Amino acid sequence: MSAVGAAIDARKAAGSGALIGYLPVGFPDLATSVDAAVAIAENGVDVIELGLPYSDPVMDGPVIQKATQTALAAGFRLSHAFDAVQQITSRTRVPVVLMTYGNPVMQYGVDRFADDLLAAGGAGLITPDLTPDAATEWLGAAERTGLDRIFLAAPSSTDTRLAMIAEKSRGFVYAASTMGITGVRSQVDSAARTLVSRLRSAAAERVCVGLGISTAQQVREVLEYADGAIVGSALVSALDAGGVAELARTASALALGTRLV
Amino acid sequence: MGLRDASGPYFGEYGGRFVPESLIEALDELTDAYARAKADPAFSAELVRLGATYTGRPSIITEVPRFAEHAGGARVILKREDLNHTGSHKINNVLGQALLTQRIGKTRVIAETGAGQHGVATATAAALLGMECVIYMGEVDTERQALNVARMRLLGAEVVPVTAGSRTLKDAINEAMRDWVTNVATTNYIFGTVAGPHPFPAMVRDFQKVIGDEARQQVLDLTGRLPDAVAACVGGGSNAIGIFDAFLDDDGVALYGFEAAGDGADTPRHAATITKGRPGVLHGARSYLLQDDDGQTIESHSISAGLDYPGVGPEHAWLADLGRVRYLPVTDAEAMDAMRLLARTEGIIPAIESAHALAGSIGLGRELGRDGVVLVNLSGRGDKDMETAGAWFDILDEK
């Protein structure tokens, strides 16, 4: 079974659910981004989602846009991502998946990307602009390497598409809590609960919810019905505002939402 | 089998749909609605009626002999899309998509714009049909096309300056897509060019092919034969595919797309996507793209805001690979010279975008000589470019 799946299942077996934390590689610089990923792993995050900076991130809101564009301006290269994964996985057993838009993977070469990610100790890919029906080459590479392939589902997805997404995903399905982009929201949309339930009917093995989750209370709410809660912008803001120390405190506070009440 | 009317989602290995799952349902809805509209005579009748009573279709053709003296004495004929209501070809596509928006039952439209021509056209259609309208425009473009920003606001649209990335057309598209992902239940995205995810490349082409359908017959009526060459500027490529489509299966007609070469295609500052780029994915489709080794989009540069785009429509990428259309670079300086030349010889001020096609036609005319006939798509008028032209030619009085 995938390391990501095992990490989520371990939390479910304990009667709770997983906390998945997003941070971009190379922000504010490569070394700090590695320390930051290790820090959230040491403070209650069960799966690290490492974002690959990209010039045209259409699914990202202002916080993540600013961080990834800063990383690019500071000279981020794709090869740095594999270095970062290697360093992180040598310091923590928490699995690391990359979140990346499609074009960098295609330009690097899908098979070569998968091989290098596997060699670095990475567990899989989250692909926000590659749906399973547009990802033939990546599906093949994932099959060959055993990497997890995590596709997104949206409240607007039809039942037919949810079935396809559930079937083609491995590790978990990323359920978008709302129609929208990444960013902090005061409430997690009630659409999330419905979508998770529809994905379960579509036989999804594990469903984690992301977009707009930024507090321990929201993590707890989401884990009432989902297998994991994904937090991004709130962690990036903490890292931006107060460095790794502040980030560690934020992760630790968010992880309280995974404790049983 | 002919090349005309390729329906997508793929044009050869180009095109497709590389978008967030949140948009798939909206794109499917649009694809279905467009297929139904296309089959409904009432829809095309309404488009024809608006073309005749609102846009001013058919647009005329104008032969320009004094300009042609500088183009080897060949016959040069302009298709006058600059005379359309709102000043460019963009209105053709916008009216089609706005009518489609009504059919889907959505009440809010969004659009990206570079030069502001597509934004003005969208704001115009929204005013005409009583729809809420938000236009995303790169901050750099809002400055160099300030007049069009004022036009859009006067028409009742909200104009949002985009401050992300290179602050030009590419970033305006990103921001419009983010809006669409968020507001898709109420909002239709009126995309301005033949790029983007399926169904946009084929649908926008269909709404623009009226240009070539009219021009082909008009040239036949005027000269008794088909042109030797057809020239158009290519940014995303909507005016170009609009005039090319009718000629795609006419083997004797050479087709030329002129890309913006900025300071020069061999300098770092250009927008010559097919000339200098390689295949990749941007804004939902696979096509030629200006990108670095890592697949990061490289910022484009052109004096013309409407051509300042690092991508190009997938049908153009396909036609380039097939060799059916030749895509050649034209620099800022060559385009500006052609703009002034047309103004001084014929009393027509073209948009800087269209001036790239005019510059290209000079070389084509010289190759063809006196027996040649060159058809040029004059896709827009130059009123919006007076600030840029004033600075370039240093023809403004000091204050």
TrEMBL record, chain A:
For this protein, the Enzyme Commission number is 4.2.1.20
Q: Which gene encodes it?
A: trpA
Keyword vocabulary terms for this entry = Amino-acid biosynthesis, Aromatic amino acid biosynthesis, Lyase, Tryptophan biosynthesis
The protein depicted here goes by the name Tryptophan synthase alpha chain
Organism whose genome encodes this protein: Terrimesophilobacter mesophilus
Q: Which PROSITE patterns match?
A: TRP_SYNTHASE_ALPHA
Q: Which domain of life is it from?
A: Bacteria
**GO MF terms on file?**
tryptophan synthase activity
Q: Please write the reaction equations for the catalytic activity of this protein.
A: (1S,2R)-1-C-(indol-3-yl)glycerol 3-phosphate + L-serine = D-glyceraldehyde 3-phosphate + L-tryptophan + H2O
UniProtKB/TrEMBL annotation, chain B:
Function as written in the Swiss-Prot or TrEMBL entry: The beta subunit is responsible for the synthesis of L-tryptophan from indole and L-serine.
Protein name, UniProt field: Tryptophan synthase beta chain
What Pfam families does the annotation carry? PALP
Q: What gene is this protein a product of?
A: trpB
Essential cofactor(s): pyridoxal 5'-phosphate
Q: Which reaction does it catalyse?
A: (1S,2R)-1-C-(indol-3-yl)glycerol 3-phosphate + L-serine = D-glyceraldehyde 3-phosphate + L-tryptophan + H2O
Describe which pathway this protein belongs to, using the record's wording.
Answer: Amino-acid biosynthesis; L-tryptophan biosynthesis; L-tryptophan from chorismate: step 5/5
Enzyme Commission number, as recorded = 4.2.1.20
Q: Record keywords: rRNA-binding included?
A: no
Residue limits of the Tryptophan synthase beta chain-like PALP domain?
56-380
Q: Give the UniProt family note.
A: Belongs to the TrpB family.
| Matches recorded under InterPro entries | Trp_synth_b_CS, Trp_synth_beta, Trp_synth_beta/beta-like, TrpB-like_PALP, TrpB-like_PALP_sf
Mark the residues carrying the PTM N6-(pyridoxal phosphate)lysine. Answer: 90
Q: How does it assemble?
A: Tetramer of two alpha and two beta chains.
Ranges that cross the membrane = none
GO CC entries: cytoplasm
Q: Name one GO molecular function term.
A: tryptophan synthase activity
UniProt keyword Nucleotidyltransferase present: no
Q: Which UniProt keywords apply?
A: Amino-acid biosynthesis, Aromatic amino acid biosynthesis, Lyase, Pyridoxal phosphate, Tryptophan biosynthesis
- Native organism is Terrimesophilobacter mesophilus
